Amino acid sequence: MKKAMALAIGLIALTAWTVGATDAKALYEKECAKCHGSDGKGDTKMGKKMGAKDYTDPKVQDALTDEAAFKAIKEGFKDKEGKTLMKPAEGMSDDDIKALVKYMRSFKKKE
């Protein structure tokens, strides 16, 4: 009985993680890819215009903390002159934003 219970809990956790990862990818494609690109390189017309970073670059990834990425998504991002480069996320929970940050980390190339 204990083994069956542990197996059931493990399957539920795995299913929840898989759904969360799928949701993060879908959310990224819907909300982020137009600027940051489906591959995270920022090599889109809008990404080039706004100076989107290449999130496949390990140096870019290492320079960006999860906290800073979370804040940029939640509150938006402005340049030094105060021009809005990225609007704040609308309708996203903190868990959605954390999942987006985790998904964005998956773009990092192995060194």
Written overview of the protein:
This protein has six helices and two strands; from the N terminus they run αααααββα. It is mostly helical. The chain has one domain (2-105): Orthogonal Bundle (Cytochrome Bc1 Complex, Chain D, domain 2). The chain has a two-stranded antiparallel ribbon. A hairpin with a 5-residue loop joins β1 and β2 (84-86). α1 crosses α6 (94-105) and α5 (66-75) packs across α6 (94-105). The protein starts with a helix and ends in a 6-residue tail after the last helix. 13% of the residues are buried. Residues 10-21 have low confidence and may be disordered.
Radius of gyration: 17 Å
Question: Largest beta sheet, briefly?
Answer: 2 strands, antiparallel
CATH architecture: Orthogonal Bundle
Number of strands: 2
Helix content: 55-70%
Instruction: Provide the domain count.
Output: 1
Identify the strand order in the major beta sheet: 1-2
Measured distance between first and last alpha carbons: 45 Å
The overall pLDDT, averaged over residues, is 84
CATH superfamily: Cytochrome c-like domain
Strand content: under 5%
SS element count, helices: 6
Structural class: mainly alpha
What is the CATH T-level topology? Cytochrome Bc1 Complex, Chain D, domain 2
